[in-house]
């Protein structure tokens, strides 16, 4: 098996798109297709199911993927060892989520862009279960999680910080204290299901009464809906800090009965290349410094 074919296969498997893989690898799409077919021919097995405009890994592709990643990682380590390269280099596929990408990770991404240009970051927006599954399958190198639990089957985890939550609404004459029973009588706003803070909030409210949320998909849309007086929303405090400071939103006096922690995870037993270890170390430092 040629290394370049495995690199192309791994990229297609990561993004599940021949077109996107070709763009990221700077190949013509026909070259990506022909390389995958050449690899399939050499192995005597189909690696992708073609489902119209979509693709997915076959069982053979799922089995090959972790080996392909290991071979690519070893190749990058060998090249660095032979050339004596001092600067870290390599591709790093990172699972993340909107609240972290937009509000926690810019300093980390800026650091790598300026100080470690040989490390190519590929950020993949996913949530919870999807991120964990991608890590176990080897589709992602590392993944950020914001969860109540800090132990996840098949994964190693570095806890980066406790993530405070804030219940927010448009400024107004709110009571000096609120209990969960008070909240179920308010219009409720939320991002999509799958965000741990939304799911835990919903579970807490449903312990009192059946509730329904108006879903806005993104944090930015949810904040604007709350500021417009459409209801209340529970969001990570870091995502509403600016609005609380300028008075666009008001934090309501309710303390969530659960605690979320921002975490960085990777597959158990995975030997982390130097550039991945560097990313973990810098993530620990920068996120913890933010408090």
UniProtKB/TrEMBL annotation:
Domain HTH lysR-type: 1-58
Top-level taxonomic group: Bacteria
UniProt-listed InterPro entries: LysR_HTH_N (IPR000847), LysR_subst-bd (IPR005119), WH-like_DNA-bd_sf (IPR036388), WH_DNA-bd_sf (IPR036390)
Keywords assigned by UniProt, alphabetized: DNA-binding, Transcription, Transcription regulation
GO molecular function, one term: DNA-binding transcription factor activity
Entry-linked CDD domains: PBP2_LTTR_substrate
Family (UniProt): Belongs to the LysR transcriptional regulatory family.
Record-given protein name: LysR family transcriptional regulator
């Amino acid at each position: 098996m040629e290394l370049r074919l495995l690199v192309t296969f791994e990229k297609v498997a990561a993004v599940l798109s021949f077109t996107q893989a070709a763009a990221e690898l700077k190949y013509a799409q026909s070259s990506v297709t022909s390389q995958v077919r050449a690899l399939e021919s050499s192995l005597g097995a189909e690696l992708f199911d073609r489902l119209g405009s979509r693709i997915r890994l076959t069982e053979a592709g799922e089995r090959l993927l972790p080996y392909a990643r290991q071979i690519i990682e070893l190749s990058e380590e060998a090249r660095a060892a032979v050339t004596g390269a001092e600067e870290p280099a390599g591709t790093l596929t990172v699972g993340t989520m909107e609240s972290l990408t937009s509000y926690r990770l810019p300093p980390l991404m800026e650091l790598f862009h300026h100080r470690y240009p040989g490390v190519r970051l590929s950020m993949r927006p996913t949530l919870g279960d999807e991120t964990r599954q991608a890590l176990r399958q080897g589709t992602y190198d590392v993944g950020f999680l914001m969860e109540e639990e800090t132990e996840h089957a098949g994964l190693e985890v570095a806890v980066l910080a406790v993530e405070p939550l804030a219940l927010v609404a448009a400024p107004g004459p709110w009571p000096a204290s609120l209990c969960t029973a008070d909240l179920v009588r308010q219009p409720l706003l939320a991002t999509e299901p799958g965000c741990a803070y939304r799911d835990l909030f919903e579970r807490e409210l449903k312990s009192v009464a059946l509730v329904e949320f108006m879903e806005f998909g993104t944090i930015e849309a949810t904040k604007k809906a709350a500021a417009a007086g459409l209801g209340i929303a529970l969001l990570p405090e870091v995502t509403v800090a600016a609005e609380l400071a300028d008075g666009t939103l008001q934090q309501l006096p309710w303390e969530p009965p659960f605690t979320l922690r921002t975490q960085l995870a990777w597959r158990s037993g995975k030997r982390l290349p130097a550039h991945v270890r560097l990313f973990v170390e810098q993530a620990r430092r920068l996120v913890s410094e933010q408090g």
